[in-house]
Write a structure and sequence with these properties.
Elements (H helix, E strand, L loop, with lengths): L1 H15 L39 H4 L3 H13 L1 H21 L5 E10 L10 E13 L4 H67 L5 H35 L30 H4 L1 H22 L5 E11 L2 H6 L2 E8 L10 H67 L5 H35 L7
Antiparallel strand pairs: 1-2, 2-3, 3-4
Helix pairs in contact: 3-5, 4-5, 5-6, 5-8, 5-11, 6-11, 8-10, 10-11
């Protein structure tokens, strides 16, 4: 009992006098603008919640898309792998933290000894408890635990980065799929109209009212629409396959909801303040936790310059027979303490310390860069969304003009006022503008998704 008390008292006294070397973490000062470039003056209403803080199901209100996102969040392999990495990081914290506590082992042994001092070959029975403890006098193990915990949090934020990326990938792919659906719809409608024109031109040619070139030009329109249909069917199936992989299932068909032009989305985006990105974006949070870990590892490296204080203790009993052991064996105990100071290691300790600082400096630069990129992402996304809406509106006007031009050209040709070449040109222009308009709708919605992602939307703190 005296040995146990001495061991505990010594450990307690050294622990109470312990300190923690190395720099304490302080978030680096970063410069962010007061307002994003590209933000609309109409979106700065103080009553409007920031776009990035809105729940994803309020941002994407198509029931089919909502169902796909839920399925992806439950089954996507990248997200499940990220969750497994979080479990690994949790285990590393437990392993690292164990160094802060004593290590205790128990031993039981039987030994038969035959020497000139023991001619009768007695049997020695022993039972002992061994304890060892390296006093964390300089905070080396506490800093290591701090670094491991920061890595755990960084891994958790990394999982949220995967989550927001997955959510945006599903939405972008869905809007692209609906673009191909809309373009296929336009192409089939155009094919029907072109086939009617071809039929009419064939009748007129057989009746001697028009030249064979009119028939050939009408065939060109039909062939153009047919080729476009084939290409779109390929794009649809490949997009469905890619989405199926994101959903964690084998390639197959994807359910649809609202038409591309009927997808609800906000005309003006309340972006919020750039300073909120420091807390809102998971990649910024992840970069900061990596910096916290690197900062703590500087303390681990610095503690190696100072002496360590290992304590050891053995408490047990020994007897020459089981009977005497049960009746009252001879007790054995020992307590030892050491101070171990590195004297020469070829510059290894100093180089490790410089390496820790270099990694910490790199982590700080990465953090600053991540913040800068985050602000840039939002600014670019705001510009892209605003300009894509204007571009889509102009394409709508252009497509309406081409539609009317093609209609009038067909009327003029039917009345014998103009050649079929005018019908050919205007019909092609209307068809191509319709396809471009569907793409413009898709680009607008994809920019809507990218803006939500850039603002840190799609995960919960």
């Amino acid at each position: 009992m005296i040995g146990i008390r001495l061991f505990l008292v010594t450990a307690l006294l050294l622990s109470l006098s312990a300190c923690t070397v190395g720099p304490n973490y302080k978030r680096p000062a970063v410069t962010v603008p007061g307002q994003y470039r590209g933000v609309s003056p109409d979106s700065s209403s103080p009553a409007a919640p920031a776009f990035g803080e809105m729940e994803w199901w309020t941002v994407f209100q198509d029931p089919a898309l909502e169902s796909l996102i839920k399925e992806a969040l439950a089954n996507n392999y990248d997200l499940r792998i990220a969750a497994a990495r979080v479990s690994q990081a949790e285990a590393v914290v437990g392993i690292t933290r164990a160094d802060q506590y004593p290590s205790v082992t128990g031993t039981i042994g039987v030994e038969n000894v035959r020497t000139k001092f023991y001619p009768g070959a007695p049997t020695l029975d022993t039972a002992a408890i061994q304890a060892s403890y390296i006093v964390d006098f300089w905070g080396q193990y506490r800093r290591a635990t701090e670094a491991a915990r920061a890595n755990l949090v960084a891994t958790e934020y990394g999982r949220e980065v995967v989550r927001t990326t997955l959510l945006s990938d599903i939405a972008v792919a869905y809007f692209q799929l609906r673009q191909f659906d809309l373009q296929l719809e336009y192409s089939k409608q155009t094919l029907v109209a072109d086939q009617e024109i071809l039929k009419l031109n064939t009748i007129k040619f057989k009746g001697g009212e028009s030249a064979q070139t009119d028939v050939l030009q009408a065939e060109l329109l039909v062939q153009q629409a047919e080729a476009q249909i084939i290409s779109l069917q390929q794009s649809i199936e490949q997009t469905e396959n890619a989405m199926s992989i994101l959903l964690g299932r084998n390639p197959g068909s994807i359910a649809r909801g609202a038409r591309l032009t009927d997808q609800p989305h906000m005309p003006e985006i309340p972006a919020g303040l750039p300073s909120s990105l420091l807390e809102r974006r998971p990649d910024v949070q992840q970069a900061e936790q990596v910096l916290v870990s690197a900062n703590a590892n500087v303390g681990v490296a610095k503690a190696a310059f100072f002496p360590q204080f290992p304590l050891t203790g053995v408490f047990g009993a020994q007897s020459t027979s089981v009977t005497s052991f049960l009746q009252g064996p001879a007790s054995v105990w020992s307590v030892g303490a050491q101070a171990i100071q590195p004297l020469f290691q070829g510059g290894r300790i100093r180089s490790n310390y410089r390496l820790a600082w270099a990694r910490r400096d790199e982590a700080e630069l990465v953090y600053r860069q991540t913040v800068l990129k985050a602000v840039g992402d939002v600014s670019n996304s705001l510009v892209a969304y605003g300009q894509s809406r204007k571009f889509r509106a102009k394409l709508e006007e252009q497509t309406d003009t081409y539609r009317e031009t093609a209609r009038l050209a067909n009327v003029r040709f039917t009345g014998g006022v103009t050649s079929f070449l005018e019908v050919l040109v205007t019909q092609q222009q209307y068809f191509e503008s319709s396809l471009a308009l569907a793409q413009a709708w898709s680009v607008e919605l994809q920019n809507y998704v990218q803006l939500y992602k850039a603002l840190g939307g799609g995960w919960e703190r």
